[in-house]
Design a protein that fits this description.
Chain lengths: 310, 310
């Protein structure tokens, strides 16, 4: 599905389900709060030839990316992962490679401090991994709390995955940096927790690209995100428009009051080895589609896989 | 994957993951217990041309079956469903039918008293639904507690789904009863809770067939399940061997002490409109493969989709 089609589909599903599916539209669903934090849950699918091509990356990297794509949604809520369930659909041709996929997923899940508590195996014509992640947050940050005047910040350097796909699609080799950003991303646990603790009002992980995800956050918050393309932190040799639209970055985009940003910035180096960059400001009002920058309306739609998690 | 191949794959995955994936092998994973019950979670996939064929059932029925397959794993733990997340992979040809699929899932989830809190949409060449279910049990019943001397009981009448598939595969029409059992099964919530409350020592839902699921339970419990084929409650016009091997029944197989069975039997009619039938007894010892009945070693492998939920 392309462009707005997936969101039309989500709207149609919501219309069908009515009050059976309420408050959907965040990176992860918030379950009941408890004394030791609020439990959050999310699901993400990784489908061959939709989310990756086998010629581009190793089987182990397929596993890394699938696990990171799912876990990053917890980081974007300010949560840490606790439990993972993995459903594989496995064509015969993938049987031999499954151990390497498992190793890649395992490494990411171990690093996250979570455990694999279940899953499902099915045969099928197309390889896919659907990963359910359950975590806990001291302070949950949704997509919907951004307020006029908040600063818009982003972690890390952007554009690597987009540049890697551009290179592969053109029959060229991506740079080592770009390839690494596509093949071996990582959830931003420490950054997500630090932003949540600092008082972030809204947060999202960059899976559809800065431009697209800024629109999602703006729509959820009922605001405009005014992004300054010149401030977007691009990786080495990356064009600004690629940095703006590159998806599956798994960096975090957050909004927070200027005073909270200043306090956080002064101790950011103790949280993260990556930069925290102000890329814009939250403006009043919003248009129906969710407005980010007028010039960059197209997100990372060729690999789109939208969530409808509550 | 066929026969033992899927279990070899699960063993290979477990070997890779080591202590990252512990205590796996039940219908649902048990999360932390709390004052108001223990939370359990499970995931199940439903893949076109693996778990169903579009020519056999309607789009709405596809949705019903996908939801039931996932939710039944909670019923088999003695739990009730609370939250559902749904990940769709949607080929273009399925776009128009998605609302009907959603209606079928929604009806089952509503009936269960649960809510849809999230999901994921992805395009892809093969239609699939991967459903994550989260529930709560007052008393969790695993697969692993069966003890020598326990009675083995099963809910309902078996063989419908197997007979329906046999008919379709032979180019014939199944009976109305058989078709209904395949196309519109239901999780056995009341029966699962009643068996749990009555003191069931082990329980599993019949997704691979009585013969196959008895082996799974026997292996998990380290016992033998001695089944009496003559006692298996077959549906109208169903041959005993079909009733023994028919999968995706979503009836419950449980073990419990004779005294507990007698107490439960005396009030069963207040729990369920379906029969509760003693089909065997738990014997000592066990063989590595998990022994059920020696004559019926083959489960419902042509539609196998084994769980490795903790």
């Amino acid at each position: 599905m392309r462009d707005g089609a997936e969101f039309d589909t989500i709207r149609a599903l919501m219309a069908r389900w009515g009050d059976l599916a309420v408050d959907i539209g965040d990176d992860a669903a918030v379950l009941a709060p408890s004394a030791d934090g609020t439990r959050v849950v999310s699901v993400d699918a990784c489908v061959e030839d939709v989310h990756f091509r086998r010629a581009w990356i190793s089987a182990r990297e397929v596993g890394v990316r699938a696990a990171v794509a799912a876990l990053s949604d917890l980081a974007a809520m300010g949560a840490r992962a606790e439990y993972v369930l993995i459903a594989f659909v496995i064509p015969e041709a993938w049987r031999e490679q499954l151990s390497d996929v498992a190793d890649g997923m395992g490494a990411v899940i171990r690093e996250a401090g979570a455990r694999i508590v279940g899953g499902n195996l099915s045969r099928g014509a197309v390889f896919s991994i659907t990963t359910t992640v359950i975590g806990r947050a001291r302070r949950v940050v949704s997509r919907s709390g951004a307020r006029e005047g908040d600063l818009v910040v982003v972690t890390g350097l952007l554009g690597g995955p987009g540049a890697a796909i551009q290179a592969w699609t053109a029959g060229e080799n991506p740079t080592v940096w770009s390839r690494g950003r596509f093949a071996a991303p990582a959830p931003r646990w420490a950054e997500g927790e630090a932003l949540a603790a600092a008082g972030a009002t809204a947060m999202i992980d960059l899976s559809d690209g800065l431009s697209g995800d800024a629109r999602h956050l703006a729509a959820a918050s009922g605001v405009r995100l005014l992004l300054d393309a010149a401030r977007v932190p691009a990786g080495p040799g990356i064009a600004p428009e690629v940095a703006m639209q590159s998806g599956e970055e798994y960096e975090l985009l957050a909004c927070l009051p200027a005073s909270a940003y200043e306090a956080l910035q002064s101790r950011w180096e103790t949280c993260s080895a990556r930069p925290l960059t102000v890329v814009g400001v939250v403006g009043a009002g919003h248009d129906a589609a969710g407005s980010a920058d007028a010039e960059s309306r197209r997100g990372f739609d060729h690999f789109a896989s939208p969530k409808f998690t509550r």
